[in-house]
């Protein structure tokens, strides 16, 4: 009953899920072993591990979905998602009673897909939690800086030089998180970099254990959108849209990047004239 109501309140549902990150996998393992009755201890351990892993995967999918839904300020999406989950559970239990083999096969298929996407789900969860923490600490931080930094960690140097293909000088380099975009892995921490030589190009550099997800983007249009947890930079390039997120403490940097890119993309005849001193 507590969960029925807690799941329908924005952010309370995510706190509830955070508390249950340990409880639910352990509970799933315990229920599976108890359902077996007396059997071989080795088999009990195997079943407990499988049940715990499946419980953890389903919990991660639920918690990640709720964090994404909580990014919208209105409460109606939370109520709709929670009610849908309640109906799904009741329907699944009813089907399980009449068609156990079919429901078991569906659960195995869903679990396999969830395990495949589990790294992306947990990356999304970690990014959202990081954004939440940054938003909560926003009031204790100094005023939002508007000066564009021009330094980035040395570990990204190789990826950056590979993208540029030549020696270039950095105009600015800002830390951000990747969003959706063609051939860009979302929820990656990295740096968005611009050079003095290529005015219509930016480079997103990042690294992971599974490879290099860096990307060169030829910018055609730029807009900045304010979201609940972040400032979202939208870049249009050859019919594709690329999103990059800046936490609210870097709102000034996101605005400065937007203005800088707009100046870079402006036609030459629209640039502000520079007065020439009389000789």
Question: Can you walk me through this structure?
Answer:
The strands form two sheets. This protein has a seven-stranded antiparallel beta sheet with strand order 6-3-2-1-9-8-7, sandwiched between helices. It has a two-stranded antiparallel sheet with strand order 4-5. The protein has helices at 2-6, 12-36, 41-70, 76-98, 100-136, 157-164, 251-265; strands at residues 170-178, 189-195, 201-205, 207-208, 211-212, 215-218, 221-226, 230-237, 240-247. Helix 3 (41-70) crosses helix 5 and helix 4 (76-98) runs antiparallel to helix 5. It is of the alpha+beta class and 279 residues long. 24% of the residues are buried.
Report a brief summary of the structure.
With 279 residues, this protein is of the alpha+beta class.
What topology does this entry show?
Blueprint (H helix, E strand, L loop, with lengths): L1 H5 L5 H25 L4 H30 L5 H23 L1 H37 L20 H8 L5 E9 L10 E7 L5 E5 L1 E2 L2 E2 L2 E4 L2 E6 L3 E8 L2 E8 L3 H15 L14
Antiparallel strand pairs: 1-2, 1-9, 2-3, 3-6, 4-5, 7-8, 8-9
Helix pairs in contact: 2-3, 3-5, 4-5
């Amino acid at each position: 009953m507590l969960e029925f109501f807690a799941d329908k309140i924005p952010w309370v549902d995510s706190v509830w899920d955070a508390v249950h990150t340990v409880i639910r996998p352990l509970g799933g393992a315990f229920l599976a072993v108890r359902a077996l009755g007396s059997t071989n201890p080795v088999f009990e351990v195997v079943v407990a591990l499988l049940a715990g892993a499946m419980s953890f995967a389903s919990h991660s999918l639920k918690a990640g979905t709720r964090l994404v839904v909580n990014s919208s300020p209105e409460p109606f999406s939370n109520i709709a998602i929670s009610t849908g989950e309640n109906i799904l559970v009741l329907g699944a239990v009813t089907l399980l009673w009449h068609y156990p083999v079919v429901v078991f096969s569906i659960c195995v298929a869903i679990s396999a897909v969830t395990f495949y996407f589990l790294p992306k789900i947990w990356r999304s969860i970690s990014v959202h939690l990081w954004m939440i923490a940054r938003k909560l600490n926003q009031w204790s931080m100094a005023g939002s800086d508007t000066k564009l930094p021009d330094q980035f960690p040395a570990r990204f140097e190789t990826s950056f030089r590979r993208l540029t293909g030549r020696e270039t000088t950095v105009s600015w380099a800002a830390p951000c998180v990747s969003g959706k975009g063609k051939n860009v892995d979302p929820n990656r921490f990295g740096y968005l970099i611009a050079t003095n030589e290529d005015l219509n190009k930016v480079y997103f550099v990042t690294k992971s254990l599974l490879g290099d997800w860096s990307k060169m983007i030829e910018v055609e249009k730029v807009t900045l959108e304010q979201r609940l947890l972040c400032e979202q930079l939208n870049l249009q390039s050859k019919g594709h849209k690329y999103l990059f997120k800046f936490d609210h403490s870097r709102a000034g940097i996101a605005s400065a990047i937007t203005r800088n890119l707009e100046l870079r993309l402006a036609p030459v005849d629209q640039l502000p004239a520079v007065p020439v001193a009389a000789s």
